[in-house]
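Quick entry, no commentary yet.
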Amino acid sequence: MDIKPINAILVATSLLLVALNMGLGAYATGAVPDAVEEAVAMKVKDDICENTMCTEVNPDWEESTSQRDFYAWHITNVDDVIENKSDPIYEKIGPVTYDVTLKKEVDSYDIKNGLLTYKQITSYACSDETLVPCSTEVSQLNIAFNPQVVGATGTGINAIMDITKTGFASGVIDIHLKQVSAAYAVADEIENEHMALLSEVEGEGQAYIVNTNLHNSAESYFLDGMFEAFDDAYGDAFLDDETKTFLGEGFSEPKWVDGTWNDDGDGVLEEDEFWYYDNNGELIGDLNNNGIIDNESSSFVSSIDLDYAFYEAVGPSQEDLSLINYMGPLVYSAMGEPDSLQDILDNPEESVTLERAKLWDFAHPTDLNITLSRDWTLYGGMGKLMLDYGAGNDDFKTDYSEDGVNLSTRMMNLLGLEIDDEVAQTVLTMGDGTEEPMGILAVSDSGTSFGLSEFLEMDQQTAIETYGITAYQHQILKQYCSDWINNVVALPLILLGGEGNITASQFVNQTFGSINPIDDTYMEYSLNAGGLWGTGIYGFPDGDPVNLTQEQSSEMLYGEWGLATAKGATMFLYGELSGKSLPINYSTEENAEAKNWTNETVAEIYGIDENAAGAARLLMMEIVYKNFIPNFLIDSFGTSLYLTQSVNNWLLGWHDPVNAYLATGDSENMTAGWTSLESNETYFGSSEYVEGGISTGEPGTITICTGEADSCDKGETVRVGDSDYVLWRSLEKEEDTYGLITAEKQGETTGGFITGEGDLVDLSGYGYAEINCDSEGTLKEIPVDICTASMDPLTRPIQAKLINNGDLLDAIPGVLPVYFGSDVEMKAEKISGAIIAGESESTFWLDTRDSTEQSTPPQMSDLQEVFVIKTSGELDDETAETMESQIVTNQDMFAWFTNFDHWADYIGISLWILVAITLIAGVASIFKPKKNIANGETKWMDKPANIEADLDLESLDTSEESIDSNETE
């Protein structure tokens, strides 16, 4: 092998070109990381904005669609669970796949601070690729029910008290139409008929029917006539023997004109004698021929003041009990039948006869028999008049056959209101005994609702159309009913044997904490639980009945922590379900150490005794919270603790009748009351009632970092909404829950890039998890960091998010005991940190313990899966190929130029081609075999004379080094 100069030149040139290409390759591959960083620095904005000021956006960003898989745990024995309280049996349903479309709209762009805010609307559509139909029905816990029970407890107690109040007013109006209307008529008859007529025939002398010379009066004459009628009717009315009379049974005359006088011995009051001589000279005037000028009439001193009974009588609370006022006849007859003489003698302090004799001042000073006869006269006479005007008819609303007193007459007697009887019957009794009472006196078949409420809430025009009454009649009736319900008028307790008066509100307070003054019973929904408290039966403690004052009951019901208020009832249930008081001083609401929830604690809060406190706890939990309110919601609104509905409904929307009622007052209003687990653009199924569907609410705002400023990392979500705090754990909620739910600041979560320093991932608004990148791998030949994040469900109760009422309801243990757990895996391209693949599995867990046992945190064994959401995604093959080419290939020293994505690639490939050509040529020349050269062959076979002088190999080497050096520089 003979290496000639030209061969060396070719080989050396090829080596020089290799060195040059290697230098260029090192430069090209070494610049890739910086180039990648530079390329992705504005990727966030570039993916969104079509121009510098982002007035136009990328259509792919504006609307994008991905898939999510949902799994639900279906209770297969839900009927058994509801009816028999059996343990639920669960069956996993899924995957149910949805196409989830995100629609975004730029709200604002802060180019200076590199912040872009946009609105986002999420829409779900059942995917054509779903393995399980989206219409599959699932039975599961109704997430709205328990919060509604707690939220309705205060309202429910207030409603019970309102029902009690309305029931009292309705009952009193009923009594007034039945009995008081008669009393008005009796009093009117006494004053304007009997007294008026008798006063016209009253005068001195025998010429007058009522001879006042003998101290007769219109009042005594009226009572004498009353006694005569009573004497004859006594046997029939009271002995069931019409042949017997009062006097015949041994009673005395009542002697309505009675007193002391200069009696001549016959016991009969006579006019004074005036002696004179007649024309015959005979002495005239000695009426009894006793030879004495008698002055009986002038000497008469009465022992009874009938004027007091008729015109001046008052009760112990200054009630007008005069017989010409309705209260007189009413109270007299209401006090009951007179006593026997023996009963009076045996027990005078309890004698109704002596009590009436005192009230109307008719007691005889010496003869108890006369007092008793007077009592019987008034009782029988007043009673007969009351009966004549319909007081004794228990069926007065429907049956007039006994007394002929119809409702029209009663209305006139009570209110002075002219009204047709059929109209009166309609306005008073419409719907009586049905589920929808409408009349003033109508009561539902259950006895728990009253037409009086409907009447009072009705506007005038509706009332006119409903009952057929006139505007004037409506005005009179509404004013009368309103006076009772609004405590303008009161019921005199003397009618019940007591003292004072009681209004509708006072009746509520009285019966809540003590005995019912009307019938001496205990109300069912009261501290005495219908009389069971203190009896020692049915699990009730043995002890004394509760006996609070009206003032104490009022404070307990309507005070600062009143049980009939949402604030007070929620606080009370928090104590019962958590076992602790609020961490405050209940008087000042300043922070303080929480106390154990005991009878002593409750007594201290309300200023009552511990016996009443224990009764309050039983009433609230066992009677109201566990029974009355749930049953009321179920019976009134058709709701339930469990629901069976499609996955579509569960996730995207269903109509809740309770929510509809709370929003509009109508549980069947299909334009309100919708709820859902996911935030779809509209509620599923609502388009049947509202064109276009009912919106789930205004879209929230999301602020992200574009990477244009150093204050945040590119792609990070800086804020969701307008606050720096998590929407469901705000400062306001911390304050309104007395610090039980602490405020939580929003974290700056990754938005597509991993920085490697304090990265957080937002778990769909349920919480944040730290991202840890602890392994490496490849995805579609792209080197990646494998990063994970997880959230332990035991550390993340989400009741406050699901309820999100904004107050203490969000913090009560066991109301909606759902816990959130999640596992996330992300794969980030190693140089840029761009997340190119990821998957997550988020699980919603339910604490299956009884709500009364959830004052302590759960264990995993207490939790049951109810819903799972799975998502996954990765860059597509085309994007992966591009990225692999731009990052992986461009970093390969021997292949960086093969993807032709840069002008340097063409230089590189050209150099390699030249290397190949020069190297092949040089090697080929070196190894080419020698041949004999004939005369006349080319002169190139001759050795040039000046070759060594013209070609300096050392200089060539230096030149190569120089080239390498220059390339390196």
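second:
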Amino acid sequence: MVNHGAPAPVDLYAPCVILLVSSLYLLRLFADAPRNLPPRPRRLPLVGNLLELGAQPHRSLARLAERHGPLMTLRLGAVTTLVASSPDAARDILQRHDAAFSTRPAPDIVRACGHDRFAMPWLPPSCPQWRALRKVCSAELFAPRRLDAQKRLRREKVRRLVSHVARMAREGAAVDVRRVVFTTLLNMLSCTLFSADLADLDEGRAGSAGEFADTIEEFASTVGVPNVVDYFRAVAALNPQRLRRRLSRVFTRLFTEFDEQIERRMRERDAGEPPTRTTEDGRAFDRQTLRSLFADLFSAGSDTSAVTVEWAMAQLLQNPSSMMKAREELTRVIGSRPEIDESDIDSLVYLQAVVKETFRLHPPAPLLLPHRAETDTKIGGYTVPKGATVLVNIWAIGRDNRVWFEPGKFMPERDFRGRDFELIPFGSGRRICPGLPLAVRMVHLMLASLLHRFEWRLPPEVEKNGVDMEEKKIWYRNVVGYATPGYCYTNLILGTRYKNVSFRPCTRFVRSIMELLLLCTPCVILLLSSLYLRLFVDARRDLPPGPRPLPLIGNILDLGSQPHRSLARLAWRYGPLMTLRLGTVTTVVASSRDAARDILQRHDAAFSARSVPDAARACGHDGFSMAWLPPSSTLWRALRRVCTAELFAPRSLDAHQRLRRDKVRQLVSHVARLARDGAAVDVGRAAFTASLNLLSSTIFSADLADLGDARAESSAGELRDLISEFTIVVGVPNVSDFFPAVAPLDPQRLRRRVARVFEQLQAVFDGHIERRLRDRAAGEPPKNDFLDALLDYRSPEDGRGFDRPTLQFLFTDLFSAGSDTSAVTVEWAMAQLLQNPPTMAKAREELARVIGSKPEIDESDISQLKYLEAVVKETLRLHPPAPFLLPHQAETTTQVGGYTVPKGARVLVNVWAIGRDSKVWSDPDKFMPERFLQSEVDLRGRDFELIPFGSGRRICPGLPLAVRMVHLMLASLLHRFEWRLLPEVEKNGVNMTEKFGMILELATPLRAVAIPV
């Protein structure tokens, strides 16, 4: 008989688990407060400092260490983590307190098949099995006598490597350095362990050899997947990402191969032969121990050495003088001998320095394997609590400018004598990598042989820009991952671009732990319940495809440090219309021209509303701003009407031609003065100030900056800084935008920061409004500028004019959007032209032909400058100022491309991805203005392969002014000056790295030298 009145156990289970997890988490936070932990960055609720890690945690943690010190505390989810980033801190952990930090926290995934109970990397040193494995590996695999006995084997494997490279050289084929070295190491290990090759370089990776290598790589990549369980261990039993199941399948394939080798060896042995090695209690190693040991040796022993040789070759190819010195030393020491013997290595002092310098700059495991505190331990005056995870950032130690001169530079000549904990790529103490002696021999022997027998050149397509030395995201690349036999927990660190997220704890307002629990637990339960409900509802809807979301945070970690690029890569996999779960917000991303047309044109009405960032609600800005008001709003229609008629209409623009010419004349005069003084021009800043003056003169009939007057520059600088701060703060990743349930708390206090900026901006605007009202009252003649038009405006519906807040917020929108976008477009265009001198020459030749000797360019000339127009279009294609435009919101549930976009979903149009779509553009990443010379594609929102200003009813109303101003400024700068890069920049070219935000800027502002023509 069913009791309908009693709740089912499953109905009670989920809330109880959520309450328990939340309570434990909050208790841990409260318990940390009175302890004397090392300094730490502020942390967010639930996720702690996970979002500080970025796409490359070793770099992010190094930057945090510069601010918080060489020993700092992070809260990664519910796990207290200590990070050491200096030689002294590393020495404290790995030597002085070695016993206290000798254990490892095993990642959840390595518990698959009970691997953590058999694997040397994860067993504690107190375990007899760990001591037995360490002893047998040290004695039978890595001891000097065993290594000397295996010299011939290593020489034979390197001989095969050289023969393979020689064959590829004869065929004119490029060499994949890491792949051939990886295969060589795989064979060396398999011959050492099984007396059998598992790969043949001459046969490629076909057959069983290729399958085994693929399995080893899959093993490493699976272990490297970010796992929410490692940060929220209370949910480990649920295995929400099913990673243990995935790794179990990989183990099954590996163990099958190992079992075949073991069985073959057992059949070959005499039936009564006793085991030759036993553990401390007299027992031999069981089958599972052997399998796990082999898995560790193959996964760790092949990649670390392979990636070190690859990095060394990359650095030498990038630094030809170092390559020459290494080859000259080899010629001097080895002479005409065709092969190198290991005994020669001691004489190759410069080669050894090359390897050390490679390890310093590119340690295979940048954070080593993690340690765990066995007891509360005092280090440097701070307490490291029992159970804390401890990471040693050897990447940061290797680039510490207090230890190394010019640490970012590859300089094998530097003095490595007397170095101790400044260079520990293999760790230190009792958990040092036992394979260090073999790795060092193999790296030196392979690198020396490749350099001695061959000259090396880059492929032509690479040689122009040099080797791409960018590191891949850690969890996607197993080669940046292992130092001791086993798995690299550092690969499990989650990464995201949201390193600017901060949170101020509310404990100052809470006086007791009970109050804290009563305050936070209902919020957490409500948040999680709404998330799971939304996920359940989404599962029943036919949403566009997308990556699988993680619990709680969804796909936030898929965004990376440059979301426009990350989402473009995801679109290649999931399609041009895809769904992401960003926190609790369903987000649909369009990444093709057809998808953009569906959203911005065919279903314009359904997607015409905006998804308003929480920071934009400061001071009620969203209730007055044309950018965020819905099109159904009377105020939006009035603002749009007056801006279109009085500011951006063709007649208004034509009437202001002289004003724009004056502002560009001032810009040219300023650049000429800098040229006479021999000073470099900050292109973006000069263009920004010119745009600022144009807007202020159009609106207020007054300049807010004078490029030629240092005294006026201070006031302009103040306004410029306010505008920049407004753009930056609104662009800061905000937890409230991903978890709207916590928005009333304003956890990052971004609304408060924006409100302070608004107050300062409004004070500036109020000064101009009051001055104009006084002039009017005194009978002064009208200036007939935009402010007069706004003060005279009366609505045709109700006859009312604009109130003061509406004017203040309108001016904020105009200055923030109208100055930055035009300035950054001019800066990107100049950067591309300086990076592509033939294109610069074509643009200047056209100007000379059309303009001739006229000192100034008139706007009527622009229509004849076809190549210049193509340059601007190509710049906006590659570098749209707003890579996602402004976010839209679905007003109703709508069918797009056969999928359902649910009501309330946030909709992003990735115009950056559309501009680089290889199905639309040939050589999409190449700057080629010529592609537009025979094309009818324009910028006005009708051609959806190029929509930097949007399209439909939410298209940027300032498009006509922006287009005129960008062309006029760029043409004038090119016509009146020749341009050169600074000497320190010219060698490597312009740094084209992007800085993501509301506006897509150059990460390094463009500074160039102007030469008057």
